[in-house]
Amino acid sequence: MIVTHRGKSPSIDPTATVAPTAVVCGDVVLGPGARILHGAVLTAEDGRIVVGEDTVVMENALVKARKGHDVRIGDAVVLGPHVHVNGAVVGDECFVATGAALFPGAVLEHGCEVRIRGVVQVNTHLPAGAMVPIGWIAAGNPATMLPPDRHEEVWAIQQQLDFTGTVYGVERETSMRELLRKQSEFYGAHADDEIVG
């Protein structure tokens, strides 16, 4: 499904393909040979998504861009099933495995690997060729990689990365009621979306 959102329609190279059950919404650019598989959702909400040449976005992956958090995915990249990419930059020839999550401001340079269920936190930078092990968390700039059982160390780094400011544009002390009121208003813009293909 190809959808216009906030007056912006996807631009899809004639050699790219979008599965019938995938959604490509808003200011999204798909490069030559890009493949968007069944159930994948690419949604640009006041931001832009650019997918490079011969990149494969596998089943049920979610790629989101918002104002200030564009997504750029390089050439020859694999985003595995159930991957979550939100406002991140992924360099050429990266491999992001099943269930991995990349948060706003994350940067993966050329040839990085994020293995199954790996997490790259907000504003984290992975140098070229870096690898996040299965289930591990990368946090910081430069990235420190830690297993999930070292939560206190992860949290100490993460607190400095401004998750709520980066992701939601609010102070950390903002109440959930206020945060979700703003999110509800923001996402309400989808009521005016138009299916164009």
Structure characterization notes:
- By secondary structure, this protein is an alpha/beta fold.
- The chain has one domain: Hexapeptide repeat proteins (UDP N-Acetylglucosamine Acyltransferase, domain 1, 3 Solenoid), CATH 2.160.10.10.
- The chain is 13% helix and 31% strand.
- It has 3 helices and 24 strands.
- It has helices at residues 151-158, 163-168, 176-187; strands at residues 2-4, 11-12, 17-18, 23-25, 28-30, 35-36, 41-45, 49-51, 56-57, 62-66, 71-73, 78-79, 84-86, 89-90, 95-96, 101-102, 107-108, 113-114, 119-120, 125-126, 131-132, 137-139, 144-146, 194-195.
- The strands form 3 sheets. The protein has a 10-stranded mixed β-sheet, covered by helices on one side. It has a 7-stranded parallel β-sheet with strand order 2-5-8-11-14-17-20, with no helix packed on it. The protein has a 7-stranded parallel β-sheet with strand order 3-6-9-12-15-18-21, with no helix packed on it.
- It is globular.
- The mean pLDDT is 95.
- InterPro entries: Transf_Hexapept/Carb_Anhydrase, Trimer_LpxA-like_sf.
- This is Gamma carbonic anhydrase family protein.
- It comes from Demequina litoralis.
Primary descriptors:
alpha/beta; UDP N-Acetylglucosamine Acyltransferase, domain 1; 3 helices; single chain; globular; 7-stranded parallel sheet; 10-stranded mixed sheet; 197 residues
